[in-house]
Design goal:
alpha+beta, 12% strand, globular
């Protein structure tokens, strides 16, 4: 009987750990998209809710009847490494698309159903009266493309569902007929901010004010609140970022990560979530051996920029730091040697673009850093160094 009980406890721990990593990769998880994962999250929602609140200060909302789970993640610092994208693995949203996404979300709250033409008209009227927002004119193809990208992101999260027609039809025809069913609850859940915009006073109505968390005490925190902030902010970064370097932490965070209490908490969080913790003199990282929590990978041959990034990283590790212009030269040499590869970059100015995109990949994964005109590999980059084996020798 005790053996059976141990097996049940172990199975429960494994389910909770896998659910934690699943939610980290997909903070807005719909039952229709991943029924098996959602079933586990629904069954284990109480320990999951406690785990995220204790270690990260993040709120988990599970709605069994509505069929979704929402992990309300709040970043410990502003970052642009996880932008909304126009499609899976596609280009990131620009300012225009983010603006239209916000306008669409606001206008969708007005009715449970809407047509694409009706919504475009509402967005155009809203843009016309919002100070600082450029007018929206769906006659232009570029404007319609940005509008469609915003709508497709809302579709991916289940905030809207096309019941008649397809959103892509609007790209080529302003008169296309598309009917949407609106899930206003999911629209509201999209915003992950501790402070709702409607509660901000006029003078403090800035984006930074949305992320203020009262639990940490503001400008005059208590000792308990300081410790809480240190725990949450360090573990948030470990869960959100590929690698956390000690020199990038604040003094309070660095002190917490080096303390006996901090190290114990970090190790416990890693173990309970099913991660392998790597502790180095330079920093910390969490490894998910099953890649459940991984939203993007490196190395990965899924894109030309990632392939170029791996090749340039080896150069940076062995010969860096280097001037940024040297990376441009290396990218040009790659394009010259492989003229049938990376056709999107086989044009005037393609080499600098390829080098810049590769460097953006390395920076996103915490493998390289640009300071002024110099680019240097970071410590984690050494693990990708090419092993060329022992040098060939000849007998004398």
């Amino acid at each position: 009987m005790s053996s059976l009980a141990n097996q049940l406890v172990r199975a429960e721990k494994e389910e909770i750990a896998r659910a934690i990593r699943t939610l980290l990769a997909r903070p807005f998880l719909a039952a229709d998209d991943e029924p098996a994962a959602f079933a586990v999250i629904r069954k284990r929602r109480e320990p999951l809710t406690r785990w995220f609140d204790y270690f990260c200060g993040w709120r988990l909302v599970v709605e069994p009847r509505e069929g979704y789970a929402r992990l309300v993640k709040v970043g410990s610092r502003p970052t642009a490494t996880r932008p909304a994208r126009r499609r899976a693995g596609g280009p990131p949203f620009d300012r225009r698309r983010y603006t239209l996404l916000c306008l669409c979300a606001a206008e969708l709250l007005a009715a449970p159903v809407a047509t694409i033409g009706m919504l475009a008209g509402r967005v155009a009227r809203a843009a016309a009266v919002e100070p600082g927002v450029p007018p929206f004119d769906p006659v232009g193809a570029d404007e319609r493309a940005a509008f469609v990208d915003a709508l497709k992101l809302l579709e991916r999260h289940g905030a809207i569902t096309a019941t008649d027609g397809t959103t892509d039809a609007y790209l080529g025809d302003e008169e296309a007929k598309v009917l949407y069913r609106v899930d206003t609850t999911r629209v509201i859940r999209l915003l992950a901010a501790p402070v709702p915009p409607s509660r901000l006073p006029g003078a403090a109505g800035t984006p930074a004010a949305l992320t203020v968390e009262a639990r940490y005490g503001g400008d005059e925190p208590s000792e308990t609140q300081r410790a809480l902030w240190a725990r949450h902010s360090v573990i948030r970064r470990l869960l959100d970022e590929p690698v956390v370097y000690r020199d990038e932490l604040t003094p309070a965070q660095a002190a917490y990560a080096a303390s006996l209490t901090g190290r114990r908490m970090i190790r416990r969080a890693a173990e309970e979530a099913g991660f392998v913790l790597e502790e180095r003199a330079e920093g910390l990282l969490l490894v998910d051996t099953e890649a459940t929590a991984t939203d993007t990978r490196f190395p990965d041959d899924g894109g030309h920029a990632k392939v170029a990034a791996l090749l340039l990283l080896d150069l940076l590790v062995t010969a860096g730091p280097l001037p940024a212009g040297r990376l441009d030269e290396e990218a040009a040499e790659l394009l010259r040697r492989f003229p049938q590869w990376a056709r999107a970059y086989q044009s005037d100015g393609g080499a600098p673009r390829l080098a810049a995109d590769a460097l953006a990949v390395l920076a996103m994964f915490g493998l390289a850093r640009r300071t002024g005109d110099r680019v240097a590999a970071l410590p984690a980059g050494a693990r990708y160094r090419v092993d060329r084996g022992p040098a060939d020798t000849e007998d004398a």
